[in-house]
């Protein structure tokens, strides 16, 4: 009767069955004024559902209004996604006042609001799989009225 003993068959996880890490993009916000720049930023909020750390290779981004590049950059040494956890990466963007002056007509037409597109790439070195590039894409509108007249920023 040894050969008739029931055996449990377990399915080993594969690359196809592993849960997938994901991230969300928060809208670009005004952080403050510096010497000759407006400090803006956006957060990437990551969720890693797997039980191992995933190292970032790089994070690059571009902020555009229409076809005009406002700012581009990269996050140096972004670290890693901790296993079974959430983490945030902040994209810091410093925009020269001179660039905003070039956009003044567009800003005035839209009552201080500027339409933008945030694009880029998050590159991760996933164990066993290798380098995975995930695109960043977010469209939004930022209220620059806060720079022009801070005391009336909440009126619009």
TrEMBL record:
InterPro entries: Lea14-like, LEA_2, WHy-dom
All copies of domain Water stress and hypersensitive response, residue ranges: 23-141
GO CC entries: cytosol
A Pfam family recorded for this sequence: LEA_2
Top-rank taxon, per record: Eukaryota
Record family assignment: Belongs to the LEA type 2 family.
Record-given protein name: Late embryogenesis abundant protein Lea14-A-like
